[in-house]
């Protein structure tokens, strides 16, 4: 994969650092110092803290929309400073930079992983007063050096084992499908691991589905968009991620269904 | 209106998507893919959800400070995926892109609307797995195509009816003025629909006003800035939007006055 | 100090305005209008409101990572519109723009102050409907004019007295050190004013420290990174700011220790 010629490189940032501290500013400063013409794009810094699955899921939804050659930095890193390794993953169209804890791999696997290197070269990382801020000392400068065209082989050795995060496969039975709440998004919608293609008979707009989430069972309509039901009504739809969501129009599905990440979801066809 | 020659086009983003999901990243990626030299500027993504009036008010305050030719994208869109139409509005100095629900029109009207088109051309929009994310599939790519110089007539047909949002006119009587809390801002200040020019006799700094908000009546000073009263004290002033605000210095006026969007406000001159 | 030739100037923004209003959009628009090629970088807009110390501390951590010539705008300004003066501070490598209340001076002092001017020239500021938004009317346009190369002597007269904020010196005694919680960061970690060099005997990883914060005394390990203790365990470490932090791994140290900004901290060596 080659970087776009003649266009300033794009570096995206996705973290759980929150917007209220020095972390983002430090990372952006480091990037602009190393690669002054980089364009730094905030994807989110308000991910739920330490929630690797959530970060991986957001990255998976976002990465594909960016120009080829974009360098995606994702830092959700409860193991910062421990032995988990810092990685650069090169895929068919992008680079991914972040910790070896799975946060990069939902996205990278989908694009097609070509090479994974562990960041080891002292030449491309900063030394700091502590070991607690790999975003500033490792991920930001390395992303900027990659944007400058430094080859991955100079950054560190290739590795062939790394943490892989994947979306659990639903159980498909006759008449029903069992999956789980994969994440609860910030609108408090329940995003499941179920896709329309998991339903043998297909799912059609307007049909009622029997949905069991945790202990709560409800017959809810499968619709095309939130506004197809009244405010406060439950609904199921294919969300913008391509997965089936259980939502309350302008409401809080997580509270109504007492559901969180990992809560089982069973959808039965009322034939 | 012509786009600035020789300067990278500016596209602003104003949404209620919150900072914690994939929505912003997707929109920014799409824009940079379609118009690689665009400069994407975050105005806010933390607007109160589904509050069209609030979004329209923020856009109205912001739009005029940007360079001519800026493309303002505003997405507060409770009716996403329903029959409400996606629009591009061309005004004297700017373009506005967003849903036909009024969120664009406080600002656009003030700049002078020249043309409104409904986005219909499949050529400039993306197809997605769902109908729930017009920001990614319609508004972002269209804004980027407009930045590339695509003429509006290629994007869709001109329309002559669209949702207009306006600021309610206050009732001006002898000795008092009646308006409402137009929005409660994030500092919990009460921003009214009253302007200094609504006061026949004028309002002078230092003067005491009798202010009734909801059921609470207070005599409060009309001042030039927050720091003119002590911490925790109530005050009225002309805010940065040009409207009269009822505030508590470093406090929460919405709680003190039990007021929210639409709560009536009466200001009486104590002669 | 000279601005970088040939690279678009960088202007950073650090405020307590919150992300949900028109404030940021207005400032960014003004900057791009005055200096169309400026690159505006969001450091944070979610600082705790009116907390000058917190803002100063974030700016101090961030400023040094940016390219030489960067213009840092910091607005935490409870005294907006009162007689506190608007300043531009030129240091060895940077410019700082903001109110004269100390928010700029932790950072500027560390870089080496060369010159301080009060912003007085009407030529470089905007007139607005109110006196409550110096960010838009004074700090943003002046920063952009500085980015354009306007000399400071045109912006206003040099001043030799201004508010200086500094980090309180800890008391170092035999066997213990007494300092304070300098700030509570958004992870609810307690960042003290103590540095490793304040400990005569040095502090070594793995050692137990007796830590008294407010009324709570605990023996906690001094470690290299959060993950060196179990989830929910207390720890002390040198944080990314270079100061010693008292933290709970993935928890809320402020609540556990009932501590806030200014709470005394005593660390005793258990010999």
Topology (SSEs and partners):
Three copies of one chain form a homotrimer.
Chain A (H helix, E strand, L loop, with lengths): L9 E6 L7 H12 L4 E6 L7 H11 L8 E5 L10 E6 L3 E5 L5 H7 L1 E6 L15 H14 L4 H4 L15 E3 L2 E9 L5 E3 L15 E6 L2 E6 L12 E5 L5 E5 L4 H4 L7 E6 L2
Parallel strand pairs in A: 1-2, 1-3, 3-5
Antiparallel strand pairs in A: 4-5, 4-6, 7-8, 8-9, 8-14, 9-13, 10-11, 10-14, 12-13
Helix pairs in contact in A: 1-4, 2-3
Notes on the structure:
The structure is a homotrimer. Chain A has about 270 residues and is α+β, with helices and mostly antiparallel strands. Chain A has helices at about 25-35, 50-60, 105-110, 135-145, 150-155, 255, and strands spanning about 10-15, 40-45, 70-75, 85-90, 95-100, 115-120, 170-175, 175-185, 190, 210-215, 215-220, 235-240, 245-250, 265-270. In chain A, strands 7, 8, 9, 10, 11, 12, 13 and 14 form an eight-stranded antiparallel beta sheet that branches. In chain A, helix 1 packs parallel to helix 4 and helix 2 packs parallel to helix 3. The N and C termini of chain A lie far apart (about 50 Å). The model of chain A has no long low-confidence stretch (mean pLDDT about 90). The interface of A and B includes residues 19, 61 and 187 of A.
